[in-house]
Amino acid sequence: MYAITIPEPGGPEALVWGQVPDPVPGPGEVLVEVVAGAVNRADIMQRQGFYDPPPGASLYPGLECSGRITALGPGVTGWAVGDEVCALLAGGGYAQQVAVPVGQLLPVPEGLDVKQAAALPEVVCTVWSNVFMVAHLRPGETLLVHGGSSGIGTMAIQLAKAVGAKVAVTAGTKEKLDHCAELGADILINYREQDFVAELKEATDGAGADVILDIMGAKYLDRNVQALAVNGRLAIIGMQGGVKGELNIGALLRKRAAISATSLRARPLEEKTAIVAAVREHVWPLIADGHVRPVVDRELPMSEAADAHRVVEESGHVGKVLLVAP
Description:
Blueprint: E1 2-5, E2 16-19, E3 29-38, H1 41-47, E4 64-72, E5 84-88, E6 97-101, E7 105-107, H2 121-134, E8 142-146, H3 151-162, E9 166-171, H4 174-183, E10 187-190, H5 196-203, E11 209-214, H6 221-227, E12 228-236, H7 249-254, E13 258-261, H8 269-282, H9 284-288, E14 296-301, H10 305-313, E15 320-324
Parallel strand pairs: 8-9, 8-11, 9-10, 11-12, 12-13, 14-15
Antiparallel strand pairs: 1-2, 3-4, 3-6, 3-15, 4-5, 5-7
């Protein structure tokens, strides 16, 4: 098969489309013929040499894909050759085929074609696990989403609105904020021109956010704590603004607030299986009913993954960038 490899870490040009051995599904796995994959920030970090795959995972980038099952490994039940699926991966999505543990498979949701489904697994599992399973966002609460126009952000807006929460977002342009508003965001903050702490406090009568979904890390740590409501929960899922920050524990104590930090890729199979099962139970019906949809900015041939990485690195997109396999 063909896949994107990274012979040496570096810029987008480090991504090489070439022939590699076909994967073989092991016990409890299926082989998926990939229709499309999607670009995530973690792929960029892997390309740069900062985020190696976990032990035993494919060395090729790509944390989600969609396609059709072409073979079943030993012991697999409940799935059949020909099933259209999408999958959460620890790696290997930038390829024509990938072996996937059955616990990380999802059926293509009703109302979507198989290619669109590639935009779902990583973002939905990330948002559901952090915002709902860890931070326990409830109806009537306020969620602040940093990077509201990203793949993660566009999904977080929709899921939070679907459960009856109020949503605030930050983004860097009016156009991106307009897209967030179309998805249901209530409070729109241009982080280049406005102080998100002040804007959020004003919009919530001084209360702040009950839950914050943060991709920035260190750069926003102090201001995120300021922006939290009493009993607020800060969920950190990214480090775009650095890895080391100063935490005002006094402010955290006064608010009886909590901070969590998680990544999805290196979690044990059992945890990923539980997250995927929760997503299938709670989110897939929302997609089938049309309340939630994937937001796709553009599609590029998988062989042009370097161009897709440039788009994401420049933040010139809204939603997901898909890579279509030949």
